[in-house]
Backbone:
């Protein structure tokens, strides 16, 4: 194996593409129940982690740090998952990230996880809300720079028909 393949195999999580944005993951034993099946709650962790990596890429630096220094936060408002397959220890899989609806104060990231042979594992929708950093109970419009970044990505990366059809 070459160095890139070794890294992808040894890593728990690795960005393998930015156009479209794809995170390659490997399920770990510690994420499984005694029967060797990945716990349901771990899928939410996979989604949040892929979203963080995507946002870091999109805005060019640590998403959470940039939020604080820009005067806003972006907590999750909702998370929806549709399961299409199971995962077992050491299973590699890819999570493709797409921008769904982008509204004045909220937005959706859509994700499709699949095995390397293309079989789907899950689809997800992560909805975030823009809030004031000093009062996380007050929503506010997304800063223009962020809205521009999301809309530019959405304009050049269409949501695949299969994901659009199974939107959670």
Residues:
């Amino acid at each position: 194996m070459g160095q890139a393949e070794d890294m992808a195999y040894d890593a728990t999580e690795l960005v393998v593409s930015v156009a479209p944005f794809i995170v390659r993951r490997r399920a770990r034993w510690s994420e499984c129940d005694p029967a060797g099946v990945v716990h349901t709650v771990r899928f939410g962790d996979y989604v949040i982690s892929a979203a963080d990596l995507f946002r870091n890429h999109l805005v060019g630096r640590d998403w959470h740090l940039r939020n604080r220094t820009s005067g806003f936060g972006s907590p999750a408002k909702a998370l929806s998952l549709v399961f299409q397959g199971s995962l077992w220890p050491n299973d590699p899989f890819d999570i493709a990230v797409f921008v769904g609806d982008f509204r004045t104060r909220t937005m959706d990231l859509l994700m499709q996880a699949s095995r390397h042979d293309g079989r789907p594992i899950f689809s997800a929708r992560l909805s975030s809300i823009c809030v004031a950093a000093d009062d996380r109970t007050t929503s506010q419009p997304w800063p223009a720079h962020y809205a521009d970044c999301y809309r530019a990505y959405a304009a050049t990366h269409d949501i695949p028909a299969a994901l659009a059809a199974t939107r959670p």
